[in-house]
């Protein structure tokens, strides 16, 4: 339970003080009686009494000091009052001026710091912008180089393809001329002699039905382009046997491992 001592207000006059003191003593006496009735085994003075007595003595000493101290009373002269007020105002103005000077100095320092920070940020922004611009230019240059290299490669491939086609056509022309000149179809007499030697020769086949060496090679080459996965041609009565044997002996063609009637060009490029 809170003590009612806290609700008592001490007054500045001596009469009020002693009246309050009497009330405090009554309250303290009631507190002592309450403690004695509640706790009969505890006899003696309550601790709050000693503390209260010390506060009373301290308050009395302060009252004596105030009563015995002479009060500084200003005269009734308006000039004196004006001078005192002026002095106080000048003192206040001086303090405010000092405060204003300090604030202005702080403001100048802040302005300098803001300017330095702005300059530093501008420098950083310039450096970052230059770096990003440089990297972007490098990437654009690399992209342009890559595109240029790609276009150059395409051009080179197109040139090589065109040259290969020209070389292929020239090779066909030269081989055709070579075969037509040195590997002509046999005459009627030669053909008949060979047919007589071959027991399995078909008598219905004539020289006009035979394929020349040039035609045989053309078929083999066209077969390689048309069906690269299965470039075999089937030999029949139209193929002149000596020419087929010549191609086999010169290792220009090879027979199929499972069907001797099929032949293909040997892949020299592998």
From TrEMBL:
InterPro entries: Centromere_CenpK. Signal peptide: none annotated. GO terms for biological process: kinetochore assembly; mitotic sister chromatid segregation. Keywords: Centromere, Chromosome, Coiled coil, Nucleus. It holds the Pfam family CENP-K. Belongs to the CENP-K/MCM22 family. This is CENPK. GO terms for cellular component: chromosome, centromeric region; nucleus. It is found in: Chromosome, Centromere; Nucleus. It comes from the Eukaryota. Residues 86-113 form a coiled coil. It comes from Mytilus coruscus (Sea mussel). Its main location: nucleus.
